[in-house]
Amino acid sequence: MGHQIFLLVCTIALLASSSLVSAEVVKHSFHSPNSARKILVAENETKKSVDGILKDLDIKGSIDYGVRAISLGSRDFGGLYSDKPLAVISPAGADDVGQVIRHALQLPTLTVAARGNGHSVNGQAMAHLGLVIDMKSMADNKKINVNVNYMYVDVCGGALWGDVLKHCVSEYGLAPTSWTDYLDLTVGGTLSNAGVSGQAFRFGPQTSSVTELEVVTGNGEIIVCSNSQNSELFFSVLGGLGQFGIITRARVLLQPAPDMVRWIRVVYSEFEDFTHDAELLITSQETFNYVEGFVFVNSDDPVTGWPSVPLNSNQSFDPTLLPKKTGPVLYYLELVLHYNNHDDPSTLNMMVEKLLGKLKYLEHFKFETNLTYMNFLLRVDHVEEAARGSGIWATPHPWLNMFISKKDIDAFNRIVLQNILKSGVNGPILTYPLLRSKWDNRSSVVLPQDEIFYLVALLRFTHTHPKESEIKQMVAQNQEVVQTCIKNGFDFKLYFPHYESTVEWKRHFGDQWERFVDRKRQFDPKAILAPGQKIFTRNHIL
Fold first, then answer.
1. HSE-CB of 505 using CA atoms within 13 angstroms
2. What would the DSSP string read from start to end of 414-467?
3. Catalytic positions
4. Where are the annotated coiled coils located (predicted)?
5. For residues 316 and 238, is the Cβ–Cβ distance under 8 A?
6. Which whole-number Å values give the CA distances from 68 to 39, 71, 73, 85, 170, in the listed order?
7. Where are the beta strands (DSSP E) in 32-126?
8. DSSP of 244-263
9. pTM for the whole structure
């Protein structure tokens, strides 16, 4: 892990130093007395106009019209869109969220968006001239209540998964069953989409590990729901893209947390072998606890090439040992096996060898290390810290996430991975299989038709001060990938979908569109919630 993090940190430094400091940095690094006075005047004028709209809104939390708050509410991790809200609300709890929505109901155009930790990539959590609710600021976020007898945790919708992990593991030796790779995401945010990582083939997405929710609907009602109580709302909200309600509390199933993990990467030159082994592992009774897959470039690029694969500084990737006919990209499976401190090391090693013995990876290209369970789940934190320090965490991230049916993944590899993306995306490319049967079809998530389908994630990074042309090129390439899938008739769905028209949304939801509209009609008939998704508009009559 140290080697991997070291390479990523070095890469971040290279990206940060590869472009000159722009005038924008100088311009925003300080304000003259004149500009400070102008900002103060603008804030006061904004407050007067917003006061007229929100004068009767009585909440225990706070309403912020300031430049910083508005700036926060008008940007996200993607950095591609910016829509300024009227104000940012920091609620004290669910009652405040309900008050905000009920207030919006009384006005003809006002909309409300719940913002978690701001990791949307296409403006999904924004509300143009509406109200953004900063869920991360909720006072209730500190309430993480573990029930050891029934093995669950009650947690606020604005709490970060990383905080849930640390509390549950350190205090109780327990952990949720399913995760995302990056844990500085809010509970309500991931449950409104799905929440996918290498454990999903066993336990399903994070939405499958939830047994109860507290939701504030678009009607302003605070409702507790579950599989057996208000079940239509429960399944509507899970994967519902924020369209039916704001999650203010979730009950998440727990299991005993292991002490340690064996973290392994094995390399493939042939996509057929890579997918065969990945599918074998996710369908076997005896298998690893975590299975993911990556695509990397057949070059010495420190971000996307050979150096990105080893896990420790004492490991190296020797390209001279690769087959002579290796193509422009290669693949590796990332595998994890849980164990405890009291387990016999020889027994652990025998199990690892037994599981790896079924696989067709390249000889000489196995990398492994041992980590604590918590450090493995928090492995991205070090990358984030370095990226924030260099400035590239705040630059645009034109990411693309998709689900692609097994029947089309070979053609996708041939047309997209080995051609369109053969030079990489200046960041990780993930691709690994999932099982449809682990997802509850009553939720609002839409999936490809095959039992086995693949997650494909293009996690692009840019330089510290990227040119506009660079960003446009990345976005255009994403669009080329999507259009290629459409042109070739691939069975695919966007994960974290983003469309601009009703026609595109209807195509996305397919035969589930009418169900989605019916749910909107029932739980948010005035289309107040999540306007940034651009599925429904405030004045559209449902």
1. 15
2. IIIIIIITTT--SS-EEEEEEEGGGS-TTSS----SSSEEEEEEE-----SS--
3. 119, 181, 292
4. none
5. no
6. 11, 5, 9, 12, 35
7. 62-64, 87-90, 112-115
8. SEEEEEEEEEEEEPPSEEEE
9. 0.91
| Phi-psi sector, 211: left (phi>0), alpha (psi -120 to 50), beta | alpha
**Spatial separation of the C-alpha atoms in residues 526 and 179, rounded to whole Å:** 34
Residue pair 331/454 in contact by the 8 Å Cβ criterion: no
In the block, tokens 């493939």 appear at 268
Kindly report the CA angle at 118 between 403 and 66, in degrees rounded to 5? 155
Q: In 110-220, which residue ranges form alpha helices assigned H by DSSP?
A: 161-172, 187-191, 200-203
Which residue matches tokens 């990780």?
428
Residues linked to residue 174 through DSSP beta bridges, in sequence order: 256
Q: What's the pLDDT at 447?
A: 98
Taking phi first (over 0 means left), then psi (-120 to 50 degrees means alpha), and beta for anything else, what does residue 90 get? beta
For residue 289, the SS3 value is coil
Rounded (5°) CA angle 398-404-405: 180
Residue-wise pLDDT for 200-255, tens only, equals: 999 999 999 999 999 999 999 999 999 999 999 999 999 999 999 999 999 999 99
